[in-house]
Design brief:
With 825 residues, the protein is of the alpha+beta class. The protein has four domains: 13-120, Alpha-Beta Plaits (2-Layer Sandwich); 122-336 and 795-825, no CATH class; 350-375 and 554-769, no CATH class; 383-530, no CATH class. Helix content is 33%, strand content 24%. It contains 26 helices and 30 strands. Strands 5, 6, 7, 8, 9, 10, 11, 12, 13 and 14 form a ten-stranded mixed sheet that branches. A hairpin with a 5-residue loop joins β26 and β27. The longest helix has 23 residues, at 76-98. It is elongated, with a radius of gyration of 31 Å.
Length: 825
């Protein structure tokens, strides 16, 4: 407390000190009852001698949990209580050695002591509520406390008692570093949005204390006493006083029991799920992804005394049917989060990026610059192929926000594709794919991957759609969104569309009736531009609620034989959406033998993954069999490293210094980057990705989408994590909450290279259960996290910097912020 609050301290003020001591690290993770009894015996002696008023002892996971109370007469008693806690802990270690529970070396180990301080004034008697997050980390209780005190849809205190509260938020980074001056901010009732902007990312900010600012506790001698406090780096503890204008015990219980994900696990590196647990359950070993939350409550009396026996209530041992129901639902959601393995969002981004950066450093010069022009490896693959399948996609505008493409876009693209077919540029145009507000030009040709002719043609086709819209006066949302950028400044739509007589003559055959009736307007505009009588349409920035000018994306697969190729595309997601599915599918196809059976047929000996460092414009080639962990660690940092291609390895042994002689066919290609013709050689991750893959990998990817659940960053603004639902093409429109949608197809070729069959994979009834699972789990996790708390809402390091949230975060945390706290711990 600061000097002011010490001066205002009531004479009868009580004080609780809770110590968490890590004995479990050398006692097998559980505190034996003999040591708990030893601690109780020693503390009973301290009570009889008058050093403390009361105590309570419990083993929670690997922590010896000591709860001491006294009547506070001066500040020196605070440190004395903590000295007692350390003394009891040291004696417990001695007892463990004497009992043969651990070696004498344990005496030298650190107990990793964590302390919580809580001053309060008894008004005759005081309900105290304590909860501990076993396997949680610093900010684990952020969501619970926000719901309890600041969410009007949760706790009833604000509605019934008319109370308001102030939150004190601390920088976890500063706490971890042990800084004397920790960045600390206060948020009152009028600044809930600012509070939420910080505490939603519980790996960066901890909601540490709450004070009443109105109601019985907000005025008078109690106004400097906290309503709730959180402390602890791991296995954190939250304590609060209850009733009489503060949350009721039932509301505290709800906050401690309601499922959410928060930071925890080894070194706080994961997102663990809250499981309410009895004392007995809390003493048992922890499963992956689980944070056991135990809670107890009692009625303090007599200036800080603690009742004995069952009058200290094990909260979750009461009403076992209700606790068991919550536990079952928690287990269901945790199972799916743990299914991410060592990938985000189960793995937190800072850990993922640290691992990836370590691997990148060890790879050294193997992480080489991506060629800015012709890629020799791709050229070799082109020379060995009979034909190439290209999927080039873009968001050129939506008819109702970012939902679906305008109706006439399809006809314009078909007319343009027919022109290209007549010119011999492409084989076939039989598949024009729509996924939400993205359009995909699916083409077979003999120009090879990375063909400037094919890319330029696609770019012009997209601008032809924009031109028709401009001439007809349509104001589609995000018109030309992916197209308009630095490379288009000062140019006209007509120039970029490369309008021709053939294209204009083909238009009436393919345009819908409404636009066909206005062909005279289109012909007139074309003739005026062609004769230099018209100025043309200057390219304007897209009217769009998110990032524009990213450029079209593409996936291209050179093929040396007719075969079925799988297509997987997602709307409302980023290129990172493919990291986990590709990693899972590679291992699945390797384990079931289908990958190696395919490789044997084409002379392959293994698989090599081409991974791109999308921020630093570098790439590396890694062998699946011998460098699996490196691949996993890089791809686990989903925003930093993405898969571009999977290659067949033709050499018996993997030699990364001889790529030209080691790589054969391309097995998979993904839209990890923009078209070079648009981006001027700058390679960045491309939103709304697409991939093409040979049969064994495509089948494994479809199996993943059918049977697994995973979360990836996306939605309409890249602001949330969710599972992209597998849908038939006709239903692939993001509607409710703009959550991601995925489509899959089999594209089959004949011997001439033309597309002979296009099969909608996710239209199969077997995917109905996958859709139900996606909808129900997306909703359950969304409801639990509230749409803002990570890992549903994205963290500060992932939110798009042009959005107001990013600006709010930077404003709050400046050195001259209006929210800098005046309170000291």
């Amino acid at each position: 407390m600061n000097s002011q609050s010490q001066a205002n301290k009531p004479a009868s003020q009580s004080y609780i000190s809770i110590g968490s001591l890590d004995l479990g690290s050398f006692l097998g993770g559980r505190i034996p009852s003999v040591l708990l009894d030893r601690a109780r015996k020693n503390l009973q002696k301290k009570t009889e001698e008058g050093e403390i008023k009361g105590f309570w002892v419990q083993g929670f996971g690997g922590d010896l949990h000591l709860h001491l109370s006294t009547t506070l007469t001066d500040s020196s008693q605070i440190s004395h209580l903590e000295d007692i806690i350390l003394e009891i802990g040291s004696d417990a270690v001695k007892g463990a050695v004497a009992e043969g529970l651990c070696s004498a070396a344990a005496k030298e180990q650190s107990l990793n002591a964590r302390f919580l301080r809580f001053p309060y004034t008894e008004r005759g008697a005081e309900p105290i509520f304590v909860t501990k997050a076993i396997n949680g980390s610093w900010g684990f209780f952020n969501r619970s406390i926000f719901n309890l005190f600041f969410n009007p849809d949760k706790g009833s205190g604000r509605r019934i008692e008319g109370n308001d509260f102030l939150a004190v938020v601390e920088s976890i980074e500063d706490l971890k570093e042990g800084k004397k001056e920790v960045r600390t901010y206060e948020f009152g009732p009028g600044n809930i949005n600012e509070l939420l902007a910080l505490v939603a990312d519980a790996e960066l900010w901890r909601l540490s204390r709450v004070y009443a600012v109105r109601g019985k506790f907000g005025i008078g001698e109690l106004k400097n006493e906290p309503a709730a406090v959180v402390e602890g780096s791991f296995n954190p503890v939250m304590i609060g006083r209850s009733q009489s204008g503060l949350p009721a015990v039932g509301e505290y219980t709800q906050a401690a029991a309601e499922f959410c994900f928060g930071p925890g696990g080894p070194q706080g590196s994961y997102r663990v799920g809250l499981v309410p647990s009895t004392f007995e359950e809390a003493a048992l070993p922890i499963s992956d992804g689980v944070c056991k939350v135990a809670a107890y409550a009692y009625q303090s009396y007599g200036g800080g005394q603690i009742p004995e026996g069952p009058d200290v209530v094990d909260i979750f041992s009461q009403n076992r049917p209700e606790t068991c129901r919550v536990q079952r639902e928690a287990a269901r959601l945790i199972k799916h989060m743990v299914g991410h393995g060592e990938f985000e969002p189960y793995l937190n981004p800072r850990t993922a990026e640290h691992r990836a950066s370590q691997q990148a450093e060890q790879l050294g010069e193997r992480l080489a610059e991506i060629p800015s022009g012709s890629d020799p490896l791709v050229e070799t693959a082109n020379q060995n192929s009979q034909f190439t399948l290209s999927d080039i996609k873009a968001d050129a505008g939506g008819k109702v926000g970012h939902t679906s493409i305008p109706n006439h876009y399809r006809g314009i693209a078909e007319a343009s594709l027919q022109e290209a077919k007549a010119q011999g540029l492409i084989f076939d145009t039989s598949a024009f794919v729509e996924v939400g507000d993205d359009e995909h030009l699916l083409m077979s040709h003999q120009r090879g991957a990375d063909s400037n002719e094919i890319h330029l043609f696609s770019h012009r086709t997209f601008f032809r759609q924009v031109w028709v819209a401009e001439v007809l006066g349509y104001k589609w949302y995000g018109l030309g969104q992916d197209l308009v950028g630095e490379s288009t400044e000062g140019r006209t739509t007509e120039e970029l569309a490369n309008l021709t007589d053939d294209f204009i003559n083909l238009l009436p055959e393919y345009l819908p009736p409404v636009e066909r009736e206005r062909m005279d307007d289109l012909k007139k505009a074309y003739q005026e531009w062609k004769s230099d009588k018209g100025e043309g349409h200057k390219v304007e920035p897209a009217f769009s609620g998110n990032v524009s000018g990213q450029g079209p994306g593409f996936a291209e697969l050179p093929l040396n034989q007719p075969e079925s190729v799988g297509l997987l595309a997602i709307d409302k997601a980023g290129p990172s959406a493919f990291n986990l599915p590709i990693w899972w599918s590679l291992n699945q196809a390797a384990s079931d033998g289908s990958l190696f059976g395919y490789l044997e047929g084409i002379g392959g000996k293994g698989a090599v993954i081409e991974i791109w460092d999308v921020e630093n414009h570098r790439r590396v080639f890694l062998d699946l069999a011998s460098e699996g962990q490196v691949i996993r660690d890089l791809l686990g940092a989903i925003e930093k490293f993405n898969v571009k291609r999977v290659w067949a390895r033709t050499s018996e042994e993997w030699n990364p210094s001889q790529l030209e002689s080691s790589l054969g066919n391309v097995l998979l290609s993904a839209s990890t980057e923009k078209l070079a013709v648009i981006s001027g050689g700058e390679y960045l991750g491309k939103d709304d990705p697409v991939l093409l893959a040979v049969e064994p990998l495509a089948r494994a990817l479809n199996l993943f989408m059918r049977d697994q659940f995973y979360m990836t960053q996306g939605d309409g603004r890249g602001s949330h994590f969710m599972f992209p639902t597998p849908l038939p093409f006709e239903d692939a429109i993001a509607t409710i909450n703009s959550r991601g949608v995925a489509v899959s197809a089999w594209v089959t070729f004949d011997a001439s290279g033309e597309i002979s069959k296009f099969e909608d994979v996710f239209a199969d009834p077997s995917y109905e259960l996958a859709r139900d699972r996606a909808y129900s789990i997306n909703k359950a996790i969304w409801d639990a996290q509230g749409g803002n708390f990570v890992p549903v809402g994205v963290g500060a390091d992932k939110v798009e910097q042009s959005y107001p949230l990013a600006k709010t975060l930077s404003t709050i945390t400046t050195d001259d912020s209006e929210f800098i706290s005046q309170r000291k711990s």
